[in-house]
Each structure stands twice: as C-alpha cells, then as structure tokens.
UniProtKB/TrEMBL annotation:
GO terms for molecular function: calcium ion binding. InterPro entries: EF_hand_dom, KIC/PBP1/KRP1. It holds the Pfam family EF-hand_8. Signal peptide: none annotated. Residues 53-83 form the EF-hand domain. This is EF-hand domain-containing protein.
Length: 92
C-alpha cells in the first residue's frame, strides 16, 4: 500500500506550492483512475472528513478526522483557516 505524506503549509507561498502540486497531480490521477474513478475517490475523501449528520465538512469533523490525513498536530487556527478558505471559494 502506498503511503502519502503531507506537510501543512506554514506560509502563503507554501500554500500556493501545495495547491500547485495537487493541481499538477490531478491529470495523472484522472488518467490512472479514469474520470469516474477520480470522482469516486474524491467523494470517498470528502465523506471521510465530513460530519455525518450535517453532510458537510465542519471544523469539528475536520479536527476529529485530521489524524486520518496524518495531520493530527494541526492547531485550531490552521483548521479554521482551511475551513474559511474553502467556504469563501464555495467548496464546502
């Protein structure tokens, strides 16, 4: 089984690089999984992080499930920033 490590960005520049890295991998993931497979995997990830009662990713659900991503040491302000960034973009 492949392992995945993720370094939580500490600056705006690191955040941009992390987003670019993900965006660069999207075509590779789509090619390997196919369009339907990619959507299915993204949905699985969303369901893993979401609040089961509200069907959205909340601060509490992200904090509770962050260890599943290897991010158990995230501070509350980092988690809130992730939520805020996604809310402003309409992604959650």
């Amino acid at each position: 089984m492949a392992t995945c490590s993720f370094h939580f960005p500490q600056s705006t520049m690191e955040t941009r690089k992390a987003v670019q890295y993900f965006e660069d991998l999207l075509p590779v993931m789509a090619e390997r999984l196919g369009g339907e497979g990619l959507i299915e995997e993204m949905c699985k990830g969303y369901r893993l992080l979401m609040d089961g009662e509200k069907d959205v990713i909340t601060f509490e659900s992200l904090k509770r499930n962050s260890a599943l991503l290897g991010l158990q040491d995230l501070r509350d302000d980092e988690i809130q920033s992730m939520i805020d960034n996604q809310l402003c973009c309409g992604k959650i």
